[in-house]
Amino acid sequence: MMKRFSEILTRKTRTSLSSDNSEGTIVGPSVTHGTASNVGLYHRNEDVVVGLMNLAEFFDRNVERKESDTSLFDYNDLFYAAVFDGHGGRECSYFLSQQLHLEIVKVIQDSKFDDFDSLSSSETLFAQAFLNCDKRFELEYPNNNTGSCATVSLVYKNSFITAWVGDCRAVLCAGDVTVQVSNDHRADNQEERDRILTNGGSIEYGRLGGILSPTRVFGDIDLKKSMPSGVLTVEPSIICFSINEENCPSSQYFLLMATDGIWDTFSNQEACAIVSKALKYNNNPVKAAKRLVDEAAKRGQEDDMSCCIVLWDNSTKRRKSSSVLKKATE
Questions:
Q1: Residue of higher predicted confidence among 243 and 238
Q2: Residue 161 clears pLDDT 50, i.e. is over it
Q3: Which of 106, 207, 206, 218 minimizes the C-alpha distance to 151?
Q4: In terms of CATH, what superfamily is 30-61+72-329?
Q5: CA distance from start to end of the chain
Q6: Rounded distance between C-alpha atoms, residue 203 and residue 208, angstroms
Q7: Which of 124, 142, 240, 266 gives 271 a disulfide partner, CB atoms 3.0 to 4.6 angstroms apart?
Q8: What's 187's DSSP letter?
Q9: Is 307 in contact with 292 (CB distance < 8 Å)?
Q10: pTM of the predicted model as reported, rounded to 2 decimal places
């Protein structure tokens, strides 16, 4: 179900999005992005970041549509962004950066969704895409035991879907309000502990099987085979948000997705405050992303540090709306 910013804060009843595109109406914000990554102290960078990517070019336009399919929503407004945190090597995280969006596109196209709302209501879209990509990695790299956490977001105008495995966290910030979008799949997460123990797994020294800190990952082929079925899984958690002027009065808001090198250094509020301050200074998400990872390194973080900022800016639309109203009353 599509969640709205106000629902997360006040549990209010869901309201519908306006589709009015008339002159002077806020028809949607502009969306930009910025990415940055710093290598840790002990190895080459195993993080990979994918900035906003228009998925339209990856859909097969030659697939015939039946007459009943003419209402399918336009993929030109569908974007993708992701952060991947590899461990044991870079092979798995790099593979995901090249292939996961293609698997998601395949599932979307095969399912023929009518609109973004129906896409966001799908319980199997990301689960199938994640599983397909994990199987492909095993087939193409059968003797490779690298693994990776992943957090990905599909962005459609002022709505987005986030899916994740592991502890690459996503946080939404609007003005002074910060909301944690994802919950970390780690052994200290009570729901994850219960899931693992129910499926016959073990937690030792705060790690899954005494080995892994994240409890859901891509790759780690040998570990998955050595543990009971369902313990170390690639099944994602999924959440959907939709934001409009009524439930989010701030003219600018952003989604911050980052690897654990960031979140082991900053609280959600601290990270968002650094990004917000940088955006107020130059309104450049690229510089804001770099400011965040540089600050993490400055504070002594030894792990890889990477982030992706997806920035929505309604200010242009609202200025246009105000100017139209002013002109109408003159």
A1: 238
A2: yes
A3: 218
A4: PPM-type phosphatase domain (3.60.40.10)
A5: 44
A6: 5
A7: 266
A8: T
A9: yes
A10: 0.85
The domain spans of the chain are 30-61+72-329
pLDDT for 67: 46
Both tokens of 287, joined, read 């510089």
Instruction: Compute the distance between CA of residue 326 and CA of residue 330 in angstroms, rounded to an integer.
Output: 6
Count of C-beta atoms within a 10 Å radius of residue 169: 24
pLDDT in tens, 170-223: 999 988 889 999 999 999 999 999 999 999 999 999 899 999 999 999 999 999
Spell out where the chain has E strands. 2-4, 30-38, 47-54, 78-87, 147-156, 159-165, 169-174, 177-180, 203-204, 207-208, 218-219, 237-242, 252-258, 305-313
pLDDT tens-digit profile of 80-111? 999 999 999 999 999 999 999 999 999 998 88
Give the C-alpha separation, 193 to 208, whole Å.
9
